[in-house]
Amino acid sequence: MQSAADAGDAAALLAAVPAGRRVALVDPRFVGHVHALRLGLTDPRFAAATVPGALTARPEARGALLRALRRTTAAVGAGAPVVAPDTDPAPEDRTVPGRIAVALEAEGTAVKRPELGSLTATVPTDAGARADAESARDAVDDEAIRLRSAVKAHDGFFTTFAISPYSRYLARWCARRGLTPNQVTTASLITALVAAGAAATGTRGGYVAAGILLLVSFVLDCTDGQLARYSLQYSTMGAWLDATFDRAKEYAYYAGLALGAVRGGDDVWVLALGAMILQSCRHVVDFSFNEANHDAVANTSPTAALSDKLDSVGWTVWARRMIVLPIGERWAMIAVLTALTTPRIVFYALLVGCALAACYTTAGRLLRSLTRRAERTDRAARALADLADSGPLAQGVAAVAPGLRGAFTAPVVALLGTLAMIGCALLLPYGSLLTVAAAAVYVVLSGLAVARPLTGALDWLVPPFFRAGEYVTILVLAARSDVPHAVPAAFGLISAVAYHHYDTAYRIRGGTGAPPQWLVRTIGGHEGRTALVAVLAAVLTHTSGFTTALTALAVAVALVVLVESIRFWVSSSAPAVHDEGELA
């Protein structure tokens, strides 16, 4: 840290700092909490940020900062305002850091101004003001505020009342010992995998240990995010780990339960795969609806107004959060039922609970979509097209087919294709060539559904319909094959494909767009994979070759998707996406 005699000296000192480092300007008269400075000066997610009396810039904003500082040095030294003459700047904008922040924003550089709440951050101009500021600072325990703010603002009932009251202190313990959120995330994954291994033993002792370890894993899962918020250690790698490990842990645990049940003489692989499919489809509904309405230019839905009104009544907030069976409630239910009952009962409870939650959330979103008057943007249409995961076959159909008109045409066509595909896979004789014909129809209808931009009120349903069409078809064909290990192989294939779909959703949420088109083409798109599995089921009817083919396809998809995903998330272009509002 170096002191500057004036703004000109500050410019010289900043210019001498190596280009790859973050820099900060702090008014020497600053009075406030340390955590206020921490929020304003150390959050890695923002190129530039400011609190009253302090300003920081990451390397990408350094040039703009120096230009603004040099342009305003003479004005600041002469006491002239940096803002327009007919404006009355706020007190924090009269300091040198405040003036520079205004100048940066005038140039087009976004400057983050974090909410400080009851934290003090000010630049007093006289002894009386300084005494008042110091009194206000000393009256508030910033460490208590720091601990409270480490907890996610919108979380489930179980997480809020059964985990966060003590996990925040575990997060602080980790911070004081130099542990990083990524290390805690990895510990959570390892614990969950050990829990899955314990469940796979098929013994009562193994099930009890699995339930306990799953809860420990969830405590660590909460701790990693709280540690990130407590110490402001956000990172792109952390975003990737956090975005993918929750699903990896949950689905690995499903597999462990299924293996344990088989050891006990009860094959529940179909139930395990059904639970995974239902949970994945719930998530794609969340992603698709949120992206469709991410930047809608209007929202006049009376359903949304009713929801806001219900949220004003305390108990309804928690009731509604529990109804959707978020990750805390879900994992607590899984852990308790694992320890006390059997894997079959665990999966029955999961299927019933998740189905009811899906009906509740989807019905609310349908009502919002039908009753709101909003114009979907091009960005929303592009996001929905990317979430649809159309491969070369559907894209080829879309390129030559005329776009079907109608407010609800796209979701209706997608639903028809999905029902036709699943219905034929379920009802026709196994291995029938008519199933392959149904797959061809599914390809054509998939292309027609995306032939026009997805800007309709219900077009956000198209990606979930496609997910259901692909996942359920693979499940049905594997289950009906009567080939040993076909369903576990299908579990592996859908796990690999689901990872690709989650990866796509989190890239879009981060504002970097979907994975490259070559990746989608290489793994065939949803319609290509569905058609391929239908052909494999017809050609390799009731032979072990079907299991081998599903396994090979799962390995191929997983390798391509994981290599590209890892390349992207460790690159400099990856976004620091952190799940602050989703209940998962």
Structure, explained:
- The structure is a single chain.
- The protein is mainly alpha-helical and 584 residues long.
- The protein has 24 helices and five strands.
- The strands form two sheets. Strands 1-4-3 form a three-stranded antiparallel β-sheet, sandwiched between helices.
- Helix 8 runs antiparallel to helix 9, helix 10 packs antiparallel against helix 11 and helix 20 runs parallel beside helix 23.
- The longest helix is centred in the middle third of the chain and has 29 residues.
Helicity, as a percent range:
55-70%
Mean pLDDT over the full residue set: 88
Radius of gyration: 27 Å
The coarse overall form would be globular
SSE order: HEEHEEHHEHHHHHHHHHHHHHHHHHHHH
For the secondary structure, the number of strands is 5
Derived from helix and strand composition plus strand pairing, the structural class reads mainly alpha
Q: How is this fold's topology laid out?
A:
Elements: H1 7-16, E1 23-26, E2 31-32, H2 34-41, E3 48-51, E4 54-57, H3 59-78, H4 96-107, E5 121-122, H5 127-138, H6 142-149, H7 157-176, H8 181-199, H9 204-231, H10 236-263, H11 269-292, H12 302-311, H13 314-323, H14 327-340, H15 343-371, H16 378-388, H17 392-400, H18 409-427, H19 433-449, H20 462-480, H21 486-509, H22 517-522, H23 525-539, H24 544-569
Antiparallel strand pairs: 1-4, 2-5, 3-4
